[in-house]
Design a protein that fits this description.
The chain is α/β, with parallel strands linked by helices and 497 residues long. It has two domains: 283 residues, NAD(P)-binding Rossmann-like Domain (Rossmann fold, 3-Layer(aba) Sandwich); 193 residues, N-(1-d-carboxylethyl)-l-norvaline Dehydrogenase, domain 2 (Orthogonal Bundle). The protein is built from 21 helices and 15 strands. Helix 6 packs across helix 7, helix 10 crosses helix 15 and helix 16 crosses helix 20.
């Protein structure tokens, strides 16, 4: 007789199936040390997992996580997690099989309020020594054309004018630091865990830049007292839907927000923590004074590589990334772009060459157990192309290196944003700026230069003849002959076909 799944919660941990790993530490003994803003799947499968591993060793009991969010939609995640005492079922998807464990590193989730008052009050508590973030690559108020903090963004302008009732995570951080400074409590570390090269420096620019708009003295104090470590984070974590909830049930757990993940994790961190840190290196994290080469290798080969796959896959109806890697039209395209136009612009790191890392990524992308959707990977292309693909393109142009494949990647994105696949089916909106992108993509069908005339994304690249001409050629071919024909022409070396 099959046992009904156990509803996840502290009181029920002892009744979980025997093969489910669970906290070996007493959850009642944990006290908070970290506030994490943006408590989605990646954070719970990555940063929270590393902390959970330390706690399993009897360490870091005073570094438990309090979850937080600044968007109205975060309230739904809060409700789901609080209903199960902030526990999460992590399901590892390996080609050899699956396994599950329950993570208990998070102990609370703050109310989500328009003025962020609960978040500000919690971060002002001197027990909080790290405030970490996963707010997506597009959440740092960076002007893509300059690469720097954008003080003119409406939300930033609001927070500068209303510093006690901010809308943004960065406004809340500034408000909490103002309270801590006034009370003599000292500062905390602000730790970005998003896929941005120089994520710590970008975070510093956002926090200090915003503070400077309303309180220059506070900005100077933050600049001297706080630390903003750079880091590289890596683990493929699909979105959660009915299949993932059913996977947890198959393990005997009723979990409203389980997380599936691959059997690979990496975390490389600059050791710059002004108020202490957990010893994450004891459970596999790497501390180094030079994160940038690790960041570049991962962001260029994996994250840019995802964009090479995703738009072609969406247009040709490949539902998942492993489907793309098994598609005879898309996989060779990915390999050639990676080998000839991405890997040459990546430096080695200790113990790993760019070519070896590319082979590792190919294996991970092709993992049939990870049903990572093409749609998820293609989401927010306006941030991901600007952040992941275009810096490589600029390097290639500076070095007079090949750019035909990267130009085709951009043309495929432009075609995808028109909103239909090659078979005529509709692509649902998949970018915060979808309406604007779709309108531009429709114009670019007959006038490709219109797509590059988006200064927030492409800057001066529209005036770079070698790229602009290649982009024009590829987009016209895609519309005239189809995505498959363009991929074939690129692989044949027939760039001018």
């Amino acid at each position: 007789m099959t046992q009904d799944p156990v509803r996840l919660g502290r009181a029920m941990l002892g009744t979980l199936p025997e093969d489910i790993a669970r906290p070996g530490y007493d959850l009642a003994d944990l006290s908070p040390g970290i506030v994490h803003i943006g408590t989605g799947n990646f954070h719970r499968a990555h940063q929270a997992w590393y902390l959970h591993r330390l706690m399993q060793q009897g360490l870091a009991q005073d570094w438990a996580i309090i979850g937080a969010g600044v968007r109205p939609g975060d309230a739904a995640m809060r409700d789901r997690l609080l209903a199960q005492d902030c526990l999460t079922t992590l399901i590892e998807l390996s080609p050899e099989g699956t396994s599950a464990e329950v993570c208990g590193a998070m102990i609370d989730f703050l109310p989500v309020a328009p003025d962020n008052a609960p978040l500000i009050a919690q971060m002002a508590d001197p027990a909080i020594r790290i405030v970490s973030l996963t707010v997506t690559e597009g959440g740092y108020f960076v002007n893509p054309s300059t690469g720097h903090f954008d003080p003119t963004h409406p939300d930033i302008a609001h927070d500068a004018a209303h510093p006690d009732t901010p809308r943004t995570a960065f406004g809340a951080i500034v408000a909490a630091l103002r309270l801590r400074r006034a009370a003599g409590h000292g500062s905390f570390t602000v730790q970005s865990c998003d896929n941005l090269r120089g994520n710590g420096a970008i975070t510093r620019d956002a926090v200090v830049g915003l503070a400077r708009l309303s309180d220059p003295d506070l900005a100077a104090w933050i600049e001297g007292a706080c630390t903003f470590p750079n880091s590289m984070v890596d683990c493929i974590v699909p979105a959660t839907g009915p299949a993932e909830i059913e996977a947890a049930r198959a393990f005997g757990i009723e979990d409203a927000a389980p997380v599936t993940h691959e059997n690979f994790r990496q975390w490389v961190i600059e050791d710059a923590f002004c108020a202490g840190r957990p010893p994450w290196d004891k459970v596999g994290a790497t501390f180094t004074d030079d994160v940038h080469d690790y960041e570049a290798m991962k962001i260029r080969i994996l994250n840019a590589g995802h964009q090479v796959l995703a738009n072609a896959g969406e247009l040709l109806g490949c539902a998942t990334i492993d489907d793309c890697m098994n598609d005879p039209r898309i996989a060779p395209f990915w390999r050639r772009v990676e080998t000839t136009e991405i890997v040459p612009h990546v430096a080695p790191v200790p113990g790993m060459t760019p070519a070896a890392y590319m082979q590792l990524i190919e294996t991970r992308f092709a993992n049939p157990a990870i049903r990572d959707t093409t749609r998820r990977v293609a989401f927010d292309g306006s941030s991901r192309h600007a952040g992941f693909v275009l810096p490589i393109l600029r390097d290639a142009l500076d070095k007079d290196a090949p750019v035909e494949g990267l130009a085709l990647v951009e043309a495929l994105w432009a075609r995808m944003c028109e909103g239909t696949r090659e078979d005529g089916s509709k692509i649902a909106p998949n970018d915060p700026h979808w309406d604007q992108l779709r309108a531009t993509a429709l114009i670019a069908r007959d006038r490709p230069a219109a797509w590059l005339a988006q200064p927030a994304t492409y800057g001066d690249l529209a005036r770079t003849p070698r790229f602009a001409e290649a982009f024009d050629r590829w987009l016209r071919m895609i519309w005239a002959e189809g995505t498959e024909a363009a991929l074939a022409a690129y692989l044949a070396g027939d760039a001018a076909a």
